[in-house]
Amino acid sequence: MNSQTYEAVRILPKKLMIFSDNTLNRVASFIVSLKISPNTLSTLALFSGIGAGVFFFLKQPFWAGVSIVICGAFDVLDGKVAARTRQKSLFGAILDSTLDRYSEFFIYFGLALYFINHWALWLTFFTFFSSTMVSYTRARAEGLGINCKIGVMQRAERIVLLSLGSLIGPLFKVFDPAIIGVLGTIALASNFTALQRIFHVKKVEKQNKLGKAT
Fold first, then answer.
1. Does the pLDDT at position 7 exceed 80?
2. Could you tell me the residue range of the domain that residue 76 belongs to?
3. Which of 142, 197, 113, 190 minimizes the C-alpha distance to 1?
4. What is the number of domains present in the chain?
């Protein structure tokens, strides 16, 4: 496997990411003391994603936003708990990634039902497709032996934007335009991220060939 790593350019502020990571580290330590397994946390993340979709369907975007925040937190915590308890496994890794895709599907499916009679229904479908391309290009690159944790619109950014749009929009009674703006941003940035990863593979391949030639 290619061992080269590249620092990813992220949309989220670095200080916010550090603060969130430190906070979740403390939560992870508490969860370890409760002896909750990483796979249980992955499953709870899925249920939270399903809950978000249901709340969107019920026209309760604020509570959908709360569910998305919880979903994102559990998604991070399962990996942290697995590392602390030395329970990392191939099964756990594929279960986590698979349930992530399911949870995102239910979130966007709920939004699609919310916009069932609105043109934004099609934007929701396109955004979900764009998000899956981010995951697919990383999985495909890593299947080729290339580390590909790069891109401006990764899962953390998608979760944060969806939760902010869902939480802040209802407070100012501008949920529809707010979430439409969020969906458009995610769609465009996700496709850009997919392209970043495609050309990253090309760059790494070129560097490997030059290394072998010398």
1. no
2. 14-213
3. 142
4. 1
Question: Which positions ≥6 away from 211 have C-beta within 8 Å?
Answer: none
How far is residue 173's CA from residue 169's CA, in Å, rounded to a whole number? 6
Does residue 7 form part of some domain? Answer: no
pLDDT at 18: 87
Q: Which DSSP symbol is given to 184?
A: H
| b/e sequence 99-116, b meaning 16+ C-beta within 10 Å | bbeebbbbbbbbbbbbbe
Tokens of 178: 């707010």
Is residue 152 in a domain? yes
Long-range contacts of residues 17-25, Cβ cutoff 8 Å, at least 24 apart: 17/156, 24/73, 24/76, 24/77, 24/80, 25/80
DSSP3 helix / strand / coil % (the chain, rounded to 5): 80, 0, 20
- CATH number for position 143: 1.20.120.1760
Query: How confident is the prediction for the chain on average, in pLDDT?
Result: 93
Residue pointed to by tokens 């944790």 = 149
**Six token digits for residue 102:** 């399911």
Contact assessment for residue 204 and residue 146, using Cβ atoms and an 8 Å cutoff: yes
